[in-house]
Amino acid sequence: MNTKNNQKIKELIGQMTLEEKAGLCSGSDFWHTKAVERLGIPAIMMSDGPHGLRTQKGEADHLGLQDSIKAVCFPAACATASSFDVELSRKLGETLGNECNAEGVDILLGPAVNMKRSPLCGRNFEYYSEDPYLAGKLAASYINGVQSKGVGTSIKHFAANNQEYRRMSNSSNLSRRAFHEIYLPAFEEAVKQSQPKTVMCSYNKINGTFASENKELLTDILRRDWGFEGCVVTDWGAVNDRVPGLEAGTDIEMPGSGGINDAEIVAAVQNGTLDEAVLNQSVERILHLILDKEQQEGCVDWEEEHEKAVHYEEESAVLLENDGVLPLASERRTAYIGEFAVNPRYQGGGSSHINSWKVTSALEAAEKKGRKVVYEMGFPADKDEYNEEMAARAVAAAKEAETTVIFAGLPDVFESEGYDRAHMQLPQCQNRLIEEICAVQKHVVVVLHNGSPVECPWAEKVSAVLEMYLGGEGVGEAADALLWGEANPCGRLAETFPLRLEDTPSYLNFANDKYDVNYAEDIFIGYRYYDAKKMPVQWAFGHGHSYTSFAYGNLQTDKETVGEHETVTVTVDVTNTGSRTGKEVVQLYIKDETGAAVRPEKELKGFYKLELAPGETRQAVFELDARSFSWYSEKGADWYAASGVYRICIGRSSRDLVCEKEIQFVSERHLPFTVDMCTCLGDVLRHPVTARVFGEMMSQGSSERSEPSLMDSSDPMMQSMIDSMPLRNFKSFVHMPDAAVRGIIEKMNQALQAEK
Length: 756
Ligand code: BGC
Prior knowledge:
- The chain is an alpha/beta fold.
- It is built from 23 helices and 27 strands.
- The protein has a 6-stranded mixed sheet, with helices on both faces. The chain has a 5-stranded parallel sheet with strand order 1-3-4-6-9. It has a 5-stranded mixed sheet with strand order 19-27-26-21-22.
- Helix 5 links the parallel strand 3 (107-109) and strand 4.
- Helix 1 (6-15) packs across helix 11, helix 14 packs parallel to helix 15 and helix 20 (688-702) packs antiparallel against helix 23 (738-755).
- The longest helix has 18 residues, at 86-103.
- It starts with 5 loop residues before the first helix and ends with a helix.
- The structure holds beta-D-glucopyranose.
C-alpha cells in the first residue's frame, strides 16, 4: 500500500503504547472505532447499510430495534439486482455516499452479496442473486459509487453465510469448488474491481473454522490471491477467539467487547504467544483506513433523494406475467384490493431497517393522479387472517370494476434478518382471496411485495403479475407509474421462482441441523440446478416482460478461436419492434461442450442493458476472457478451462435463448496429473504427454508380448472397459510384469514433470 500517509503511520505506530494499539483493533461503542487523542488519531463512524442510512445518534443496536435518523429508504438489493443495471448500482452508491458525507458516516456497511442458496433465507431481501457473476458486477459498481464520494464500504458477509438459522455458530460445509465457483466470486469481483475499504467477515464457520479466524479466507484468498488492501471488520459480535482471529487477518472487532478482548491481545504479546508484528500490521491497516479518508462535503435534498428512490424502483420491478391488461388505460375503472395498497411492505427487518423519510402508497399515488380507483382492504398486510366480511366487500368491488389490482406480499414477520422463513407461501388469506376474485373478474393483476420468491398457485389464472420486491419508500409511486404505463418495466429476475419449495436445490439440507449446513447441491444452485434437472419452474432466472418487444440478430464474435491470454468480443443487434421506448437486458450464457468436467448446463457470463426507441437497433457488446469459460479445479487449486468447444448463447432469460454460436477455446495448461497404479487407462490416453509415452512404451514392448490388441478395439463395451481400467488391472490383463508397468508409470511421470 502506498499512500501519502505511509511515513506518518509508521511513526504513529512507533509512538503508540501496546494498549493503544490493541484498543484500536476494536470499536469504542456500537458504531465508532477508538480515537487516540494524544496522537491526533480520530475515531471513524460506521453505519448500516446497505440500501439507506441507519445512523444511530442515540441508543444503539445491530438489530434495527432502536431509532435511527430519518433517511431515504432505497429499494433493497433483491429489487436493485433485478435492474441488471450496473450504472444504476453505481448511482445508488453515489447517492448513499453523498448522504454519508452529510451525516458524518465514514463507512457504509454494505453491500451484502451472499448467494441465495434457498428462497427461505430470511435475509435474502438484502442479497442480490443466486448468480455470483451478477452479484459481483452489481456490488463492484455500488462500491465504486459510494467510494467515489470518499466514503468507505464494508462488503458482507464474508463468507458462505446463506441462512439465518444459527448463523452465529453453524458450520457451512462445502467443497472447495463450490466455495470458489459460487460463494466467493461476488466478493472476488468486488475486491478486484473496486477495492472496498473494508470486508465484513461473517458469523458462521466454514468447514469447521470461524470466518473471523479463517486464515485461508482472510489472508490467503482475500489478501494474497485477490490483492485486498483494506481492513477486515467482524460482523457485529462475530469474534470467537480474538488472538487467533487477529493472526488470521481480522483487524477490527465490532462493536468491541468492553476491553476484554483488547486485554487478551495485550497479554498475548506480553507472554510471547502473539508476535507484535502481527498487531502492528493490523494497526497499520486501520490507521490507513482512518487517515487516508478524503473527507468530502455532503449536501442532501431529501425530496430529490426520494425521487431517486422512486426511479430506481421503476427500473427494478419485474413484470412476470402480462396478457396485455397492463399498462392500464387511464379511463379504466379499477379496484385496488389488499392492505399493501395503502401500507406497502417496502423494506425488511433487522440491521438494514431504515427510519424512512416518507412513504407514498400506491393508492395515494393513484389518487394524486386522479385515477378511477376504488379501494377495499380485503386482507391485512401484517398477518395471515381471513375475514369473511372484508373479503366479501373486496370480491364485490372487484366484480364491479373493469380491472382489479391485488396488492399482495409477505408480512414483516414472515421474513427478516435473524430467522429464516418457515415456508415459501404467501399468507393463505391472500391466496384464497386472489382465487375468489379470479372467479368474478377476468382482469386480475397481482402486485407482489416480498424479499424472496413465493409460490404462486394462482399464476395461470391472473392476467398480470408485477413483482415489486421490497422496493423502498418509493414503491407506491413506482407501482403506480408501472401499472398505468408512465414507466415501462425493465427488471429481470435475479433469481429463479421455483414452482414449490420441495423443488429447491438445498431443500434437504437447509436449516435442519443445529450445527452443520451441508451444501450437498454443491455448484448446482438456482438455475444451475433447475437446468441440470430440466425442471419446470414458475419463472426463470433472467425472466421479465416489457410493454414493448425486442428482436435479436447478427450475433458475431471477433474471432473463432480464443487463446488463454486473449479476449473475444461478442456483439448482437437488438431492435425494439414495439411501439414504445423500453429497455432490454441482453444476457450471455456459456455452455461448456468439452465434457472435461461436471459443469452446469450454462452460466451467465455477461449482461447488457439497452434502451431502445421504437424501431431503433443497437448493439449489445460483451467481452469474454479465459475466466468466462473456466471452472474451479480443486486439483489445480485454480480456475481452468479445457481446450475445446464452448457455446455462446444470447438469451432474454435463462430459459429463452434466442441465438447461439460456437467458439473454440485453446488452453496451454493441463490440470496437475500424476500417474500411479490406480490411474485409469482412459485418463492416460487422454493426456497428450502420457498418451505419447504410453504409446511409445507399448509399441516397443509389443513384439515381445502376445496380448490381445485391446487398444484397437472399436467395440463400445471394450472401449468403455479400457477407459475405466486402472493400470494395475491392465497389467494382469495383458500379462505384463509388475516392474514393466512401474517403469512405464515412472517414464510418464518424468515426462509430466518435464512438461511443467
Ligand atoms: C448484521 C450486519 C450489520 C451489523 C451492524 C449484524 O447483525 O449481520 O449486516 O451490518 O449487524 O448492524
